[in-house]
Structure formats: structure tokens, C-alpha cells
Design a protein that fits this description.
This protein has helices at residues 32-42, 63-72, 86-94, 104-108, 111-120, 157-167, 188-195, 211-219, 230-233, 239-248, and strands at residues 5-13, 16-21, 24-30, 47-51, 77-80, 99-102, 125-133, 142-146, 151-156, 171-176, 202-205, 225-228. It is of the alpha/beta class and 255 residues long. Helix 8 links the parallel strand 11 (202-205) and strand 12. Helix 1 (32-42) packs parallel to helix 2 (63-72).
Length: 255
């Protein structure tokens, strides 16, 4: 059985880690290098670094901060934000990233996924999907959003995940915009719908408020990994205690 992964997330804006609700009302949460080092020492399986305003501001990811974070940890580091070309991805990998996360550019130029997979290998290509539930939809439907969640598309999140997997993505980083930052649990319906529709790993993101929420995303949502920010940033739980909680409930975790 493959072990499930616990992945702290560093949402970075202007060189600082921030956290908000539904991608808005951002609150300063600390220095990315200090947090990255702490999570590495606590036993995080991987880290995700997202320059959350890069696409909206039409600029590239802040490479200097990425380099400092990469120097501080020795676990897989996924970096995203503002990536538009294969060359942008190459520069991030040269800066210390192990994987690159692409969202907006992939939506509007899907062949970017396949070109990156050919160049670097699918294991390096993570397609991030920011999904929002269509109000009143039954059965529930979710639409893809781009530019840091600020622009709605008419794309089905499930169909886009399937297409991304077919094009060569190695993983899906799935964020529920409705649940993000509310700490009331992941959108299990969304997570399950995507995880059971694709054959590649799905990372659940958005809504973690307790170790129980992580358990539900893994056990009921069928996620392969869980991304969390607030509960770790604000010391509401830590990675060793979270892993212990999950292991006691039968989740296969790297200890």
C-alpha cells in the first residue's frame, strides 16, 4: 500500500506566507524560509510553495524566495505561480524546485502540460485546479477558476482533471475555493469525484481545520495526499501529532 502524504502549503505574497478565506482577506502567517525549515524538521513529506498573486499580477514566481526555501529543506518541493512557458518551469527546477505546479496557463494552453511532461517527465508536472461549486447544482458540479481564483471559466473541474491526466500531468493539486481557509473540512464530494475519475495522484486542498479533516479527505475522499496550511501555521496541530492521529485510524503514513 502506498503511503499517504502530509504536505504543508506556503501561500506566498510579497515574500511573506499568507492565509485567507476563499482566496480573500489575506493574513500574514510568517516567513516562508522559517516555516519551511520547521515543517521539514517536523517530518513533512513534501512542501508546496505557491506564489498566489503571480498570475493575477502577470509576473513570474519570485525565484530568490524559492531558492532560499529550497536551500532550507531536503524533501520534495513543488512550486507554482505565474508559470507560462516550459522555460519558466525549467528556471524553477534550476532554482531548486522538484516539481512545478501550473494552473492558469495550462487552462488556456493545455498543450503546455504535454510539452512539460515530455521535457521534464510527468513526475515533475503538477496541475493545480481551483474549483468552485456551482450554486444549486444537483448532482453537484464544480467550475474551474483561474488567475488566483479571480476569474471563472465554464470548464468542469472533473473533465479538466481527466484531460490534464491524459495530457501527461503527474498529479492533480485540487483546491476547493468554497472550503479554503474556513477550517470546516475539505469538500469531500469534490475530492472523491476527482480522485475516482483519474488514475494519477490527487492532493486535496482547502478547508483543513483538524487532523480529523485530513483523515476524512484520505479515507472518504480517496485523496492520495492532503495539503494544509492554517492548522500548521498557527500551531493548532503539528505534523508528528497529525501523523500519529492518522496512523491510529489505519491510514498508511510515513513515520
Amino acid at each position: 500500500m502506498l503511503t499517504k502524504r502530509i504536505i504543508p502549503c506556503l501561500d506566498v505574497k510579497d515574500g511573506r506566507v499568507v492565509k485567507g478565506k476563499s482566496f480573500e482577506v489575506l493574513r500574514d502567517s510568517g516567513d516562508p524560509v522559517e516555516l519551511a525549515r520547521r515543517y521539514y524538521e517536523e517530518g513533512a513529506d513534501e512542501l508546496v510553495f505557491l506564489d498566489i498573486s503571480a498570475s493575477r499580477e502577470h509576473r513570474k514566481t519570485i525565484m530568490t524566495v524559492v531558492e532560499r526555501v529550497a536551500d532550507a529543506v531536503f524533501i520534495p518541493l513543488t512550486v507554482g505561480g505565474g508559470l507560462r512557458t516550459v522555460e519558466d518551469m525549467r528556471q524553477l527546477l534550476l532554482s531548486g524546485a522538484d516539481k512545478v505546479s501550473v494552473n492558469t496557463a495550462a487552462v488556456y494552453s493545455p498543450d503546455l502540460i504535454s510539452r512539460a511532461a515530455v521535457r521534464f517527465g510527468s513526475q515533475c508536472v503538477v496541475v493545480a485546479i481551483d474549483a468552485k461549486r456551482v450554486p444549486g447544482s444537483s448532482p453537484p458540479r464544480w467550475q474551474v477558476h483561474t488567475y488566483g481564483g479571480s476569474m471563472s471559466t465554464q470548464m468542469s473541474a472533473i473533465e479538466w482533471a481527466k484531460q490534464a491526466a491524459t495530457l501527461g500531468a503527474g498529479e492533480i493539486l485540487l483546491t476547493s475555493m468554497d472550503a479554503d481557509g474556513h477550517r470546516s473540512g475539505y469538500d469531500i464530494d469534490l475530492t472523491h469525484a476527482i480522485a475516482t475519475s483519474v488514475s494519477i495522484p490527487v492532493i486535496a486542498s482547502g478547508g483543513a481545520g483538524s487532523p480529523e479533516d485530513l483523515y476524512r479527505a484520505l479515507a472518504h475522499g480517496k485523496a492520495d495526499a492532503v495539503l494544509a496550511a492554517s492548522i500548521f501555521h498557527y500551531n493548532e496541530s503539528d505534523i508528528p501529532r497529525t501523523k500519529q492521529f492518522l496512523a491510529e485510524r489505519g491510514i498508511s503514513i510515513r513515520r
